[in-house]
Structure formats: structure tokens, C-alpha cells
Design a protein that fits this description.
Layout: E1 34-35, H1 80-93, E2 99-101, H2 110-118, E3 123-125, E4 129-130, H3 131-136, H4 138-144, E5 146-147, E6 154-159, H5 163-171, E7 179-184, H6 189-194, H7 204-217, E8 222-227, H8 232-245, E9 247-253, H9 269-278, E10 283-286, H10 292-302, E11 306-309, H11 311-315, E12 323-324, E13 336-342, H12 343-356, H13 361-371, H14 373-378, H15 380-388, H16 394-406, E14 412-416
Parallel strand pairs: 2-3, 2-11, 3-6, 4-6, 6-7, 7-8, 8-9, 9-10, 10-11
Antiparallel strand pairs: 1-5, 12-14, 13-14
Helix pairs in contact: 2-12, 5-7, 7-8, 8-9, 12-13, 12-16
């Protein structure tokens, strides 16, 4: 049986040169994708289509409906207990999600978020968006941010070092999300060069001004994603400062700025617990969430509201539904059994979402490698054919799955006895 694409994508045909006004976009329209612009796919002069959108399936929605979860007015006018109460009231209205897709550059885009939501994720972050470019560049907005009715609750994350530019960017998305998030956690060299992310930990007055600017200027709450300092007290003081500046939710990655390798350095859940006990706003934990049992253990040990997972989800978007890859079966063979789901099936579902909600091909190519990495190690010639393909098409990618099936390369995902009866719901 050959896998074929979802033909419903052909129903979403744009008018020639169609452009969407920021004031005429409705994120509540079922089956429609919201893009803040519908500029034509770029032509960059190279023999690849990786930077182009995989489809032009965008329609013009009617005027925007009121945002049900938005605050009545900016939270910045509140102080003390009222601000804390407002933060919890908003979190409660969202249903207090516990299993959350972390922000991942070029990887937590709309189709992937929808796939994770189908398999148990209860909220998600967008990829990190560059606030200055987002404010100034229509093409960037068109390609890098999209959402739809099913994509809630949603955190839209920005990196920034200029409060005014950050507010300008945030105001373009606040009607379409539940939090605007500031990235204070990126430890990569590009963040050091651009002076954002975790490298702002050396300039706490600037950090405070960024949070205050959004808290005073937005009608949607501000959240922050941080890393810990080597010294626990510095971390606690940092978290308290963010809370006082107007942060309504804090996600804590339990590694320092220098601990970039998640496999080499374990996240410090004790530090996360200390932060949770020191502040009064909702706290989320990030780090060491490799399968669903890790999620429950982390929440039990730290007392946080929920957990974020990043890299493990790229290989296994069904993680929150109780599935785990073979990497995390070793030592648990007596309770882990092969499930009916595998990564090739997840890829087909992801591609279906991409046909309906267009994203750049480079994002799709990345997910193909992540999802089929173990399969490609068995049949490297199939991976080589993918790498040689400069211009991707859906037919080619579905064909990759067909070839692997014909080669009997199936690698199942596993479920524990505890989760075996709970995985069928996600597949319906």
C-alpha cells in the first residue's frame, strides 16, 4: 500500500497576488492558516527550493474575532497581588496545560505543532522569531509565523535586545496567541553575536526593560524562557526580578548557558524546584524530558505546572502520547512493547499537515532527517538520494517512505504497559 498526499490541500487556492491585511486575519477560522503576510515565495538564485514555501495554500479570512483569552488591558498597570492573580486567572482559563512543545528554531513550526498536539501536546511555542526582522520584513513574517484555530494555547517567542522593536513585533501577533514569550535562554554562538537570548543574563537592567515594555504595552501576558545561573541564589534573584517586571509565566531550562549539550549535561531539576518555590507565577520545567514518564516524574519532583520537551520530540512527536524510541527502551524491555505506530507514519502525517499549512521546504527537510534518522542508518543510500534532491516535492518525500516500507526497514515506537491502553485515542 503506497502512501499518498492529502488532496484537501488543493482546496486552498489563493487569488493572484493576494495579500492579507494584519487587521483582516482570523485565527479562529477552522482549517485555515493564518500568515501575517502572503508575499510570494522568494527566489534566491540557488538551485534549491528549501527557502520557498512548500505550497501557496492560503485563503483570505473574514475580519478577526475578539481573542477570548486576552487580558482586558495591559498587565503593566497592575501591581503586587493583583498582577499575580491575573497571571493565574489567565493560566487557569487555558486549562493549565502540562505537556508543551518547546520553541525550536526552524522546527516548532505550525505543521509540527499540530502533529505534536494530535499526539498529546497540550500547548506549544513557535520557533524563536527575530523581533527586528519580524517588525521590518514582510517576507520574513510570511514565512516564519503561521497559526490556525487548532493551534492553541500558543506561545509566540521573540529574541530581542531593543524594547521598542520588541513591542512593535509583539503587537503584530498578540491577537493570535496566548502569550508573547521572550527568549532569554538561547546559548548558541549566533545569540552571542546578535546579543540576545542567554547572553542578556549579563545585562539584567536590559532584561528587565524588555519585560516591562511588553507588560505595559500588550493585552496578552508576557512569558519568559530562561536558563539557570551557576549559583542558585543568582537564579532565584533573576526569577524574582522577572516576576516583578511583569512576567506572567516562567519556563526554566535547568542548564546553564555553558551547558549546551543536553546529552552530556543533565538538567538541574532541584534548581527548577527552587525557582518554583521562590516565585508566585506559574512555572514550567525544561530539560531531561525524553519520554512521558520523565514528564510525570519532573512535575512530581519540582512541583511545576508543566514541562517542555524539545529535541526528543523531533525524533518522536508522539512522545506525549506515551510512545518512546528504542533508545529509551534499554533496561525497560520487560515493560516496553512495540507499538503499531512508527516514525514513517508520523512523517506522512506531518507532510499532510504541511500541504494544508505551508512552511519553507528547509523545515520539512530537517524533519525528514530527524524522523527517519534511524531508518537511514539501515539504508544510507535512501538518505543519499534525499540529500541529492535539491528541489523537494511532496511526491518525492512520500516516495521515500514507500521505498523504506518496501525495504522492510520498519522501526516501531514502543509503549510501556502503563501507556498501551492510552495510545489509541491519539491515533483516531
Amino acid at each position: 500500500m503506497r502512501f499518498r498526499r492529502n488532496l484537501c490541500a488543493s482546496l486552498f487556492t489563493p487569488k493572484p497576488n493576494q495579500k492579507l491585511s494584519n487587521t483582516l486575519l482570523n485565527p479562529f477560522m477552522a482549517t485555515q492558516t493564518l500568515n501575517l503576510s502572503s508575499a510570494s515565495p522568494p527566489t534566491n538564485g540557488h538551485d534549491t527550493n528549501d527557502d520557498a514555501l512548500c505550497s501557496s495554500a492560503i485563503t483570505t479570512p473574514p475580519p478577526s474575532a475578539p481573542l477570548a483569552t486576552a487580558l482586558d488591558r495591559p498587565i503593566g498597570h497592575l501591581t503586587g497581588e493583583a498582577r499575580i492573580e491575573r497571571a493565574w486567572a489567565h493560566w487557569n482559563r487555558l486549562g493549565r496545560p502540562k505537556l508543551i512543545v518547546a520553541p525550536m528554531v526552524d522546527n516548532s513550526e505550525l505543521p509540527f505543532r499540530l502533529l505534536c498536539r494530535k499526539y498529546g501536546a497540550q500547548a506549544a511555542y513557535t520557533p524563536m522569531l527575530h523581533s527586528r526582522i519580524f517588525s521590518e520584513n514582510e517576507k520574513y513574517r510570511s514565512q516564519e509565523f503561521s497559526t490556525c484555530k487548532e493551534d492553541r494555547p500558543l506561545f509566540v517567542q521573540f529574541c530581542a535586545n531593543d524594547p521598542d522593536l520588541l513591542l512593535e513585533a509583539a503587537q503584530k501577533v498578540e491577537a493570535y496567541c496566548d502569550y508573547v514569550d521572550i527568549n532569554f535562554g538561547c546559548p548558541q554562538r549566533i545569540a552571542k553575536r546578535g546579543y540576545y537570548g542567554a547572553f542578556l543574563m549579563d545585562n539584567l537592567p536590559l532584561v528587565k526593560s524588555l519585560v516591562e515594555k511588553l507588560a505595559n504595552g500588550l493585552n496578552v501576558p508576557v512569558s519568559c524562557k530562561i536558563r539557570i545561573f551557576p549559583d542558585l541564589q543568582d537564579t532565584i534573584n533573576y526569577a524574582k526580578m522577572l516576576e516583578e517586571a511583569g512576567c506572567a509565566l516562567l519556563a526554566v531550562h535547568g542548564r546553564t548557558r555553558d551547558e549546551k549539550d543536553g546529552k552530556k549535561f543533565r538538567a538541574d531539576w532541584k534548581a527548577i524546584k527552587a525557582v518554583r518555590e521562590a516565585v508566585r507565577i506559574p512555572v514550567l520545567a525544561n530539560g531531561n524530558i525524553r519520554h512521558i514518564e520523565d514528564a510525570w516524574q519532573c512535575m512530581e519532583e519540582t512541583g511545576v505546572e508543566g514541562v517542555l520537551s524539545a529535541e526528543p520530540l523531533l525524533e518522536n512527536p508522539a512522545l506525549f502520547a506515551g510512545y518512546r524510541t528504542s533508545e529509551w527502551v534499554s533496561g525497560h524491555e520487560e515493560i516496553c512493547k512495540a507499538g503499531e505506530l512508527d516514525q514513517a507514519q508520523l512523517l506522512v502525517e506531518y507532510l499532510n499537515f504541511c500541504e494544508k499549512h505551508p512552511v519553507p521546504w528547509r523545515m520539512i527537510r530537517s524533519h525528514v532527517h530527524k524522523l527517519l534518522g534511524d531508518w537511514f542508518r539501515i539504508h544510507p543510500h535512501v538518505r543519499e538520494d534525499l540529500n541529492k534532491q535539491s528541489k523537494l516535492t511532496f511526491e518525492f518525500l512520500y516516495g521515500i517512505v514507500d521505498r523504506l516500507r518496501e525495504l522492510n526497514a520498519r522501526i516501531p515506537l514502543f509503549v510501556t504497559d502503563y501507556n498501551r491502553n492510552n495510545t489509541s485515542v491519539a491515533q483516531t
